[in-house]
Specification:
Elements (H helix, E strand, L loop, with lengths): L2 H14 L2 H8 L3 H15 L4 E4 L2 E4 L1 H29 L3 E7 L1 H8 L3 H7 L3 E7 L13 E5 L8 E5 L5 E4 L1 H7 L13 E4 L9 E8 L2 E8 L5 E2 L2 H9 L4 E4 L5 H6 L3 E3 L4 E2 L5 E5 L7 H18 L32
Parallel strand pairs: 3-4, 3-5, 8-11, 8-12
Antiparallel strand pairs: 1-2, 5-15, 6-15, 7-12, 7-13, 9-10, 9-14
């Protein structure tokens, strides 16, 4: 005998005053209800119902048993409902690793709205620059800029963010506004050193004209290089140099005029790809899915915020990225 079902049928019959009504409520046959109620009475060694022309009437034992069982069944139903709701509402902690500049300037400003939608989900952000570093192993999901081999991670590609060449109005006034990419050779250009230690001192530009594409490659120089873009941004905002940057990460500075982009009739080439990486065993986890969808939608929206000419595209890993040279510009002497 399925005792839980027998109790459910008994309570349904007690509330409705009819075995046939209980059968309809439970979505089973009259015979199924009668069989389990009779079996329950046999196990308890008592009569739960008086059966007569007026339908079912609870006996004294039946009324006592119903009073005892109803709260227990309600608690069980509440436990079932709570578990179902928990499975439909993300909970727990999600460990997210990523490029700090991207997390700070793109993801964090949108987190209050995300938290309002998922208040039971805790986020634990970690600084991770590439997939091979030790810190990545402790993360459930990564949001990274750059050319990486996914390996055991599942990769979800996101739209590439176009980049612009920018400095403050004061800097441009003092040093001259560039009209051509070659003019940057005379400027203090702030170069980023990627997670593999390569200095990105080769800035490539493309312009489409009547005769086709024109590509200009400029080896830039400056007195500050850094593997953290916030260092470069701080100096650029202090009128100290020219920076290559995605408009989506400095929206307020561009909107206020603190940063002014140059060479907008040229497209900056080789923007780094952007992707989410997560572990295969977690791909169906609700907390991972909701954050991945949130981050993907946000980055897609931000990729459309650009002052750059045309659409950024990725034609695979650029040639200068290959090899162990410490500078991207070293590629020019080997091609």
């Amino acid at each position: 005998m399925d005792k839980l079902k027998a109790i459910q049928y008994f309570l349904s019959a007690a509330q409705s005053g009819s075995l046939s009504a209980a059968a309809r409520q439970q979505g089973v046959t009259l015979q199924a209800v009668a069989k389990l109620v009779n079996a329950l009475e046999a196990e308890l060694g008592t009569t739960l119902f008086q059966r007569g022309s007026r339908g079912l009437q609870l006996t004294a034992d039946g009324a006592q048993y119903a009073e005892a069982c109803a709260p227990l069944l309600a608690q069980l139903q509440a436990a079932d409902d709570g578990l179902r709701q928990a499975r439909q509402r993300p909970q727990g902690t999600l460990v997210v690793g990523g490029t700090p500049f991207l997390l700070q300037h793109c993801i964090v400003p949108a987190l209050p709205e995300f938290h309002a939608s998922y208040p039971d989900l805790t986020l634990d952000f970690r600084t991770v620059l590439h997939l091979e570093e030790l810190a990545a192993k402790d993360c459930d999901l990564l949001l990274l800029h750059g050319w990486f081999e996914a390996g055991a991670w599942v990769r979800r590609e996101l739209p590439v963010m176009a980049q612009v060449t920018a400095a403050t109005p004061d800097y441009w006034k003092r040093q001259g506004f560039p009209r051509h990419p070659r003019d940057l050779a005379d400027h203090n250009c702030l170069s980023y050193r990627n997670p593999y230690g390569k200095l990105l001192d080769l800035w490539r530009y493309r312009q489409t004209g009547p005769q086709g594409d024109v590509v200009e490659e400029v080896v830039v120089r400056g007195w500050l290089n850094s593997n953290h873009r916030d260092n470069l941004l701080a100096l650029a905002l202090d009128h100290g140099g020219v920076m290559r940057i995605a408009p989506a990460t400095v929206q307020a500075d561009l909107a206020s005029g603190r940063l002014v982009p140059a060479l907008l009739d040229w497209e900056m080439m080789d923007p780094p790809p952007l992707a989410l990486y997560f572990r295969p065993e977690l791909r169906r986890t609700l907390r991972l899915r909701v954050f991945a969808d949130f981050a993907a939608a946000l980055c897609t929206e931000l990729s459309q915020i650009t002052d750059a000419k045309g659409q950024a595209s990725i034609d695979g890993r650029p040639a200068w990225h290959q090899g162990n040279n410490r500078r991207a510009s070293s590629w020019l002497s080997h091609r």
